[in-house]
């Protein structure tokens, strides 16, 4: 089967993330993604998947592929993107992560609201615990959990000076069997020789890490796929280069 190029942005936050703008609602995210010409998006809120069901309904109606995701802050303080084939699997892992979050209540005035919205952008709940804290799960444990559900983990924004696998432990352990890493959308090759050296052995994805609507990527980053489905995208991430 011939491969086709699909424009993707696999790291977008909704208003569920406390650092996500209030305008990052399911309808606004889907419509902005369509306006920007994207073929597939990944929603990856901090340590939760509660806004995926509403976004999934809208994405299906719009013909936009949704890759269900979560941006997990592991016990090593490493941000890791976990991608799943099904929203139900992301919700299952999200519940497990919530159990492992420290019992620290979110201060909305300080960190922002953590809103759960349906497909009509109606508020159906608020998350009590502060979602940006580290969960008591290691990156190795997370990888095992996600792999059992036919998903994949991808170290997030490895070029950053904080909350990245390189900044925190300095390398990518072989036992994690990681094949793909994420670079920030603004990263330029040559800025960090260590990042470039480590990245050379992996497939690299570029994502917006959007917290505001205007930050969602244009048709900038592409994946060559047999078909535009979550399964095909995850297969590429698992295979690596």
Count of spatially separate domains: 1
Q: Largest beta sheet, briefly?
A: 6 strands, mixed
Radius of gyration: 17 Å
| Average predicted confidence as pLDDT | 97
As for the CATH topology, it is TIM Barrel
Query: Percentage of helical residues?
Result: 25-40%
Please give the count of helices: 8
The CATH fourth-level homologous superfamily: Metal-dependent hydrolases
**Run of helices and strands:** EHEHEEHHEEHEHEHEEH
CATH class: Alpha Beta
The strand line-up of the biggest sheet is 7-4-3-2-1-10
Structural class by sheet pairing and helices: alpha/beta
Distance between the termini: 19 Å
Low-confidence stretches: none
Strands, count: 10
Shape: globular
Give the strand content. Answer: 15-25%
Give me the CATH architecture, please: Alpha-Beta Barrel
Structure description:
The chain has 241 residues and is α/β, with parallel strands linked by helices. It has one domain (4-239): Metal-dependent hydrolases (TIM Barrel, Alpha-Beta Barrel). It has helices spanning 26-35, 52-62, 87-99, 108-111, 139-148, 165-169, 193-199, 230-239; strands at 4-12, 40-46, 65-73, 79-83, 115-117, 123-126, 152-155, 180-184, 203-207, 222-225. Strands 7-4-3-2-1-10 form a six-stranded mixed beta sheet, sandwiched between helices. Strand 3 and strand 4 form a beta hairpin. Helix 1 packs parallel to helix 2 (52-62). It is globular, with a radius of gyration of 17 Å. The two termini are 19 Å apart.
